[in-house]
Amino acid sequence: MTLVDIGIPVLRETIDARADGAADRPDVPELIDRFGRVARDLRVSITERCSLRCTYCMPAEGLPAIPAERLLSADEIVRVVDLAVRMLGVHEVRFTGGEPLMRRDLEQIIAGCAQRLPHVPLMMTTNAVGLEHRAQALADAGLTRVNISLDSVDRAEFAKLTRRDRLPSVLAGIRAARQAGLSPVKVNAVLMPDTLAGAPDLLAWCLDEGCELRFIEEMPLDADHEWARANMVTAATLLEVLGTRFELTEVGRDDPAAPAELWTVNGGPATVGIIASVTRSFCTTCDRTRLTADGMIRSCLFSDHEVDLRGPLRAGASDGELAQLWRGAMWQKWAGHGIGAADFVPPDRTMGAIGG
Protein backbone atom coordinates (compact mmCIF):
# COMPACT_ATOMS: atom_id res chain seq x y z
CA MET A 1 0.00 0.00 0.00
CA THR A 2 1.32 3.44 -0.87
CA LEU A 3 1.37 6.34 1.57
CA VAL A 4 -0.62 8.68 -0.66
CA ASP A 5 -4.29 9.10 -1.50
CA ILE A 6 -5.37 7.59 1.80
CA GLY A 7 -7.78 10.35 2.77
CA ILE A 8 -9.66 13.42 1.63
CA PRO A 9 -8.97 16.66 3.55
CA VAL A 10 -11.88 17.69 5.74
CA LEU A 11 -12.42 20.43 8.28
CA ARG A 12 -10.40 20.00 11.45
CA GLU A 13 -13.57 19.81 13.56
CA THR A 14 -14.63 16.69 11.64
CA ILE A 15 -11.33 14.97 12.33
CA ASP A 16 -11.43 15.95 16.01
CA ALA A 17 -14.92 14.52 16.41
CA ARG A 18 -13.96 11.03 15.28
CA ALA A 19 -13.13 8.22 17.64
CA ASP A 20 -9.67 8.34 19.17
CA GLY A 21 -8.85 4.95 17.72
CA ALA A 22 -7.28 4.35 14.33
CA ALA A 23 -9.16 1.30 13.11
CA ASP A 24 -9.18 2.66 9.56
CA ARG A 25 -5.45 3.37 9.55
CA PRO A 26 -3.34 1.45 6.97
CA ASP A 27 -1.00 -1.08 8.55
CA VAL A 28 2.29 0.69 7.85
CA PRO A 29 5.04 1.56 10.35
CA GLU A 30 5.47 5.22 9.40
CA LEU A 31 3.71 8.13 11.12
CA ILE A 32 1.11 8.75 8.45
CA ASP A 33 -2.06 10.79 8.78
CA ARG A 34 -5.39 10.75 6.97
CA PHE A 35 -4.14 13.15 4.32
CA GLY A 36 -1.10 11.23 3.15
CA ARG A 37 1.49 13.24 5.06
CA VAL A 38 4.31 11.36 6.79
CA ALA A 39 5.95 12.77 9.91
CA ARG A 40 9.73 12.38 9.79
CA ASP A 41 10.83 15.44 11.78
CA LEU A 42 10.63 14.99 15.58
CA ARG A 43 10.56 18.00 17.89
CA VAL A 44 11.33 17.09 21.51
CA SER A 45 10.66 19.71 24.17
CA ILE A 46 12.75 18.94 27.26
CA THR A 47 11.72 21.78 29.60
CA GLU A 48 9.21 24.58 29.98
CA ARG A 49 11.77 26.85 31.68
CA CYS A 50 13.49 29.68 29.83
CA SER A 51 16.10 32.33 30.54
CA LEU A 52 14.21 34.93 28.48
CA ARG A 53 10.61 36.17 28.47
CA CYS A 54 9.86 36.94 24.81
CA THR A 55 6.52 38.68 24.56
CA TYR A 56 5.27 36.47 21.72
CA CYS A 57 6.02 33.30 23.67
CA MET A 58 5.95 33.64 27.47
CA PRO A 59 4.33 35.76 30.17
CA ALA A 60 6.57 38.09 32.15
CA GLU A 61 6.56 35.74 35.14
CA GLY A 62 7.38 32.68 33.05
CA LEU A 63 5.32 29.54 32.53
CA PRO A 64 3.96 27.45 35.43
CA ALA A 65 6.63 24.97 36.47
CA ILE A 66 6.16 21.35 35.47
CA PRO A 67 6.70 19.16 38.56
CA ALA A 68 9.99 17.30 38.28
CA GLU A 69 8.29 13.91 38.43
CA ARG A 70 6.24 14.74 35.34
CA LEU A 71 9.24 15.68 33.20
CA LEU A 72 10.73 12.93 31.07
CA SER A 73 14.13 11.91 32.36
CA ALA A 74 17.24 11.83 30.19
CA ASP A 75 17.00 8.05 29.84
CA GLU A 76 13.31 8.24 28.93
CA ILE A 77 13.98 10.87 26.28
CA VAL A 78 16.74 8.76 24.77
CA ARG A 79 14.50 5.71 24.66
CA VAL A 80 11.63 7.57 23.01
CA VAL A 81 13.88 9.21 20.41
CA ASP A 82 15.47 5.85 19.65
CA LEU A 83 12.15 4.10 19.04
CA ALA A 84 10.90 7.01 16.93
CA VAL A 85 13.82 6.54 14.56
CA ARG A 86 13.97 2.74 14.60
CA MET A 87 10.26 2.01 14.41
CA LEU A 88 8.46 5.10 13.10
CA GLY A 89 10.63 6.45 10.29
CA VAL A 90 11.82 9.66 11.97
CA HIS A 91 14.81 11.07 10.06
CA GLU A 92 15.89 14.02 12.18
CA VAL A 93 15.47 15.17 15.77
CA ARG A 94 15.39 18.67 17.22
CA PHE A 95 15.51 19.46 20.94
CA THR A 96 13.53 22.48 22.07
CA GLY A 97 12.05 24.05 25.20
CA GLY A 98 11.32 26.42 26.76
CA GLU A 99 15.05 26.74 26.59
CA PRO A 100 16.91 23.40 26.36
CA LEU A 101 20.06 24.90 27.91
CA MET A 102 18.10 25.09 31.17
CA ARG A 103 18.50 21.30 31.47
CA ARG A 104 21.73 20.45 33.25
CA ASP A 105 21.63 16.97 31.72
CA LEU A 106 21.36 18.25 28.14
CA GLU A 107 24.77 16.86 27.21
CA GLN A 108 23.71 13.48 28.63
CA ILE A 109 20.56 13.50 26.51
CA ILE A 110 22.49 14.39 23.36
CA ALA A 111 25.20 11.82 24.01
CA GLY A 112 22.67 9.06 24.69
CA CYS A 113 20.82 9.73 21.46
CA ALA A 114 24.02 10.07 19.44
CA GLN A 115 25.34 6.76 20.76
CA ARG A 116 22.18 4.91 19.74
CA LEU A 117 21.61 6.83 16.51
CA PRO A 118 25.02 7.87 15.14
CA HIS A 119 23.73 8.70 11.66
CA VAL A 120 20.70 10.78 12.67
CA PRO A 121 21.02 14.61 12.72
CA LEU A 122 20.54 15.89 16.28
CA MET A 123 19.69 19.58 16.37
CA MET A 124 18.64 22.14 18.95
CA THR A 125 16.64 25.36 18.95
CA THR A 126 18.00 27.71 21.60
CA ASN A 127 18.15 31.36 22.59
CA ALA A 128 21.94 30.89 23.04
CA VAL A 129 22.08 32.52 26.48
CA GLY A 130 25.00 30.69 28.07
CA LEU A 131 25.75 28.66 24.95
CA GLU A 132 29.27 30.05 24.81
CA HIS A 133 30.10 27.92 27.86
CA ARG A 134 28.56 24.66 26.52
CA ALA A 135 28.81 24.74 22.74
CA GLN A 136 31.95 22.62 22.50
CA ALA A 137 30.72 20.05 25.03
CA LEU A 138 27.43 19.72 23.15
CA ALA A 139 29.25 19.29 19.85
CA ASP A 140 31.48 16.66 21.45
CA ALA A 141 28.37 14.88 22.77
CA GLY A 142 26.98 14.59 19.24
CA LEU A 143 24.90 17.71 18.61
CA THR A 144 24.91 18.42 14.87
CA ARG A 145 23.81 22.03 14.60
CA VAL A 146 21.71 24.76 16.21
CA ASN A 147 18.94 27.18 15.35
CA ILE A 148 19.26 30.31 17.46
CA SER A 149 16.43 32.68 18.25
CA LEU A 150 17.49 36.29 17.73
CA ASP A 151 14.92 38.94 16.88
CA SER A 152 17.05 42.09 16.95
CA VAL A 153 20.71 43.15 17.12
CA ASP A 154 19.69 46.42 18.74
CA ARG A 155 20.36 45.98 22.45
CA ALA A 156 17.47 48.17 23.61
CA GLU A 157 14.98 46.51 21.27
CA PHE A 158 16.23 43.07 22.28
CA ALA A 159 15.80 43.87 25.97
CA LYS A 160 12.32 45.24 25.39
CA LEU A 161 11.17 42.21 23.42
CA THR A 162 12.74 39.55 25.64
CA ARG A 163 12.37 41.41 28.96
CA ARG A 164 16.05 40.62 29.59
CA ASP A 165 19.24 42.52 28.69
CA ARG A 166 21.15 39.48 27.39
CA LEU A 167 22.06 40.36 23.81
CA PRO A 168 25.85 40.16 24.38
CA SER A 169 25.48 36.61 25.72
CA VAL A 170 23.39 35.58 22.71
CA LEU A 171 25.92 36.97 20.23
CA ALA A 172 28.75 35.22 22.09
CA GLY A 173 26.77 31.99 21.98
CA ILE A 174 26.29 32.25 18.23
CA ARG A 175 30.01 32.71 17.68
CA ALA A 176 30.83 29.84 20.05
CA ALA A 177 28.47 27.57 18.13
CA ARG A 178 30.26 28.35 14.87
CA GLN A 179 33.65 27.76 16.46
CA ALA A 180 32.46 24.39 17.79
CA GLY A 181 31.42 23.30 14.31
CA LEU A 182 27.67 23.45 14.94
CA SER A 183 27.06 24.76 11.46
CA PRO A 184 25.39 26.01 9.51
CA VAL A 185 24.13 28.22 12.33
CA LYS A 186 20.59 29.28 11.53
CA VAL A 187 19.05 32.33 13.15
CA ASN A 188 15.29 32.47 13.73
CA ALA A 189 13.69 35.90 14.05
CA VAL A 190 10.07 36.64 14.91
CA LEU A 191 9.38 40.17 13.79
CA MET A 192 7.01 42.42 15.67
CA PRO A 193 5.81 45.85 14.49
CA ASP A 194 8.29 47.56 16.84
CA THR A 195 11.28 45.63 15.46
CA LEU A 196 10.37 45.61 11.76
CA ALA A 197 12.58 48.62 10.97
CA GLY A 198 15.59 46.70 12.31
CA ALA A 199 15.10 43.70 9.99
CA PRO A 200 17.69 44.91 7.41
CA ASP A 201 20.26 45.41 10.20
CA LEU A 202 19.65 41.86 11.46
CA LEU A 203 20.06 40.45 7.96
CA ALA A 204 23.27 42.44 7.44
CA TRP A 205 24.65 41.13 10.75
CA CYS A 206 23.85 37.53 9.82
CA LEU A 207 25.50 37.94 6.42
CA ASP A 208 28.64 39.30 8.08
CA GLU A 209 28.68 36.48 10.65
CA GLY A 210 28.00 33.68 8.16
CA CYS A 211 24.64 32.76 9.68
CA GLU A 212 21.53 31.73 7.75
CA LEU A 213 18.63 33.98 8.73
CA ARG A 214 15.01 32.84 8.78
CA PHE A 215 12.23 35.29 9.60
CA ILE A 216 9.08 33.80 11.12
CA GLU A 217 5.60 35.30 11.08
CA GLU A 218 4.24 35.71 14.60
CA MET A 219 1.69 33.01 15.39
CA PRO A 220 -1.19 33.03 17.89
CA LEU A 221 0.77 31.09 20.49
CA ASP A 222 1.57 33.91 22.92
CA ALA A 223 0.83 33.48 26.61
CA ASP A 224 -0.89 36.86 26.92
CA HIS A 225 -3.28 36.09 24.02
CA GLU A 226 -2.73 39.51 22.47
CA TRP A 227 -1.99 38.22 18.95
CA ALA A 228 -4.09 39.82 16.23
CA ARG A 229 -3.67 39.17 12.54
CA ALA A 230 -4.21 42.84 11.77
CA ASN A 231 -1.15 43.74 13.87
CA MET A 232 1.29 41.02 12.79
CA VAL A 233 4.19 41.62 10.41
CA THR A 234 3.41 39.65 7.25
CA ALA A 235 5.87 38.14 4.82
CA ALA A 236 4.80 40.67 2.18
CA THR A 237 5.51 43.62 4.48
CA LEU A 238 8.86 42.17 5.51
CA LEU A 239 9.93 41.71 1.88
CA GLU A 240 9.12 45.35 1.16
CA VAL A 241 11.29 46.51 4.07
CA LEU A 242 14.21 44.22 3.20
CA GLY A 243 13.92 45.26 -0.44
CA THR A 244 14.81 48.85 0.44
CA ARG A 245 18.37 47.70 1.22
CA PHE A 246 18.91 44.35 -0.49
CA GLU A 247 18.18 42.82 -3.87
CA LEU A 248 16.10 39.71 -3.21
CA THR A 249 15.35 36.98 -5.74
CA GLU A 250 12.86 34.27 -4.85
CA VAL A 251 14.11 30.69 -5.18
CA GLY A 252 11.38 28.84 -3.28
CA ARG A 253 11.89 25.91 -0.92
CA ASP A 254 14.95 23.69 -1.06
CA ASP A 255 12.81 20.84 0.33
CA PRO A 256 9.05 20.49 -0.25
CA ALA A 257 8.55 19.83 3.48
CA ALA A 258 10.74 22.75 4.59
CA PRO A 259 8.77 25.59 6.18
CA ALA A 260 11.04 28.38 4.89
CA GLU A 261 10.74 29.94 1.45
CA LEU A 262 14.14 31.25 0.34
CA TRP A 263 15.36 34.38 -1.44
CA THR A 264 18.92 34.98 -2.61
CA VAL A 265 20.45 38.19 -1.27
CA ASN A 266 22.21 40.50 -3.72
CA GLY A 267 22.61 37.72 -6.27
CA GLY A 268 23.66 35.05 -3.76
CA PRO A 269 24.98 32.68 -2.72
CA ALA A 270 23.66 33.89 0.65
CA THR A 271 19.94 33.48 1.22
CA VAL A 272 17.29 34.70 3.60
CA GLY A 273 14.23 32.64 4.44
CA ILE A 274 10.71 33.50 5.50
CA ILE A 275 8.49 31.08 7.37
CA ALA A 276 5.05 32.51 6.63
CA SER A 277 3.05 30.19 8.87
CA VAL A 278 0.00 32.46 8.81
CA THR A 279 -0.21 34.13 5.39
CA ARG A 280 1.41 31.39 3.25
CA SER A 281 0.53 28.27 5.19
CA PHE A 282 2.46 25.05 4.49
CA CYS A 283 0.22 22.66 6.43
CA THR A 284 -0.29 20.42 3.41
CA THR A 285 3.39 19.40 3.47
CA CYS A 286 3.93 19.38 7.25
CA ASP A 287 6.16 16.48 8.32
CA ARG A 288 6.50 17.19 12.05
CA THR A 289 5.56 15.30 15.16
CA ARG A 290 6.07 16.71 18.65
CA LEU A 291 6.76 15.40 22.14
CA THR A 292 6.19 17.78 25.04
CA ALA A 293 8.47 17.98 28.07
CA ASP A 294 5.88 16.09 30.13
CA GLY A 295 5.67 13.26 27.63
CA MET A 296 2.62 14.08 25.51
CA ILE A 297 2.48 13.51 21.75
CA ARG A 298 1.11 16.43 19.75
CA SER A 299 0.47 16.08 16.04
CA CYS A 300 0.01 19.82 15.43
CA LEU A 301 1.08 23.03 17.16
CA PHE A 302 -2.49 24.25 17.19
CA SER A 303 -4.35 21.13 18.26
CA ASP A 304 -4.96 20.51 21.96
CA HIS A 305 -5.40 16.81 21.24
CA GLU A 306 -2.57 15.06 23.07
CA VAL A 307 -1.73 11.40 23.62
CA ASP A 308 0.02 10.42 26.83
CA LEU A 309 3.27 8.55 26.22
CA ARG A 310 4.76 9.09 29.68
CA GLY A 311 2.15 7.08 31.56
CA PRO A 312 2.40 3.90 29.44
CA LEU A 313 6.20 4.24 29.28
CA ARG A 314 6.47 4.25 33.07
CA ALA A 315 3.88 1.51 33.39
CA GLY A 316 6.11 -0.88 31.48
CA ALA A 317 4.83 -0.57 27.92
CA SER A 318 7.06 -2.11 25.26
CA ASP A 319 8.60 -0.06 22.45
CA GLY A 320 6.09 -1.66 20.10
CA GLU A 321 3.16 -0.56 22.26
CA LEU A 322 4.52 2.98 22.54
CA ALA A 323 5.05 3.11 18.78
CA GLN A 324 1.47 2.05 18.18
CA LEU A 325 0.17 4.82 20.45
CA TRP A 326 2.25 7.29 18.49
CA ARG A 327 0.91 6.03 15.17
CA GLY A 328 -2.65 6.44 16.41
CA ALA A 329 -1.95 9.97 17.59
CA MET A 330 -0.59 11.04 14.23
CA TRP A 331 -3.50 9.46 12.38
CA GLN A 332 -5.71 12.07 14.09
CA LYS A 333 -3.71 15.02 12.73
CA TRP A 334 -5.74 17.96 11.42
CA ALA A 335 -5.68 19.01 7.78
CA GLY A 336 -4.44 22.46 8.83
CA HIS A 337 -4.23 24.93 11.68
CA GLY A 338 -7.25 26.98 10.58
CA ILE A 339 -5.88 30.34 11.73
CA GLY A 340 -7.88 32.10 9.05
CA ALA A 341 -11.19 30.54 10.10
CA ALA A 342 -13.77 32.69 11.85
CA ASP A 343 -14.08 30.17 14.68
CA PHE A 344 -10.32 29.69 15.20
CA VAL A 345 -9.37 29.18 18.84
CA PRO A 346 -5.69 29.25 19.90
CA PRO A 347 -4.43 26.17 21.71
CA ASP A 348 -4.35 26.09 25.50
CA ARG A 349 -0.58 25.57 25.55
CA THR A 350 1.64 28.40 24.36
CA MET A 351 4.70 28.02 22.17
CA GLY A 352 6.97 27.88 25.20
CA ALA A 353 5.00 25.02 26.70
CA ILE A 354 4.69 23.05 23.45
CA GLY A 355 8.19 23.44 22.07
CA GLY A 356 9.23 25.15 18.83
Give an account of the 3D structure.
By secondary structure, this protein is of the alpha/beta class. The protein has a single domain, classed as Alpha-Beta Barrel (TIM Barrel). It is built from eleven helices and 14 strands. A twelve-stranded mixed β-sheet has the order 9-10-11-8-7-6-5-4-3-12-13-14. Helix 2 runs parallel beside helix 3, helix 2 packs across helix 10 and helix 3 packs parallel to helix 4. The longest helix is centred in the first third of the chain and has 15 residues.
In short:
With 356 residues, the protein is an alpha/beta fold.
Number of domains: 1
State the order of secondary-structure elements, H for helix, E for strand.
HEEEHEHEHEHHEHEHEEEEEEHHH
Helix content: 25-40%
Spatial separation of the terminal alpha carbons: 33 Å
CATH-assigned homologous superfamily: Aldolase class I
Q: What labels describe this entry?
A:
single chain, 356 residues, alpha/beta, TIM Barrel, 12-stranded mixed sheet, two-stranded antiparallel sheet, 11 helices, 14 strands, 29% helix, 17% strand, globular, disordered N terminus
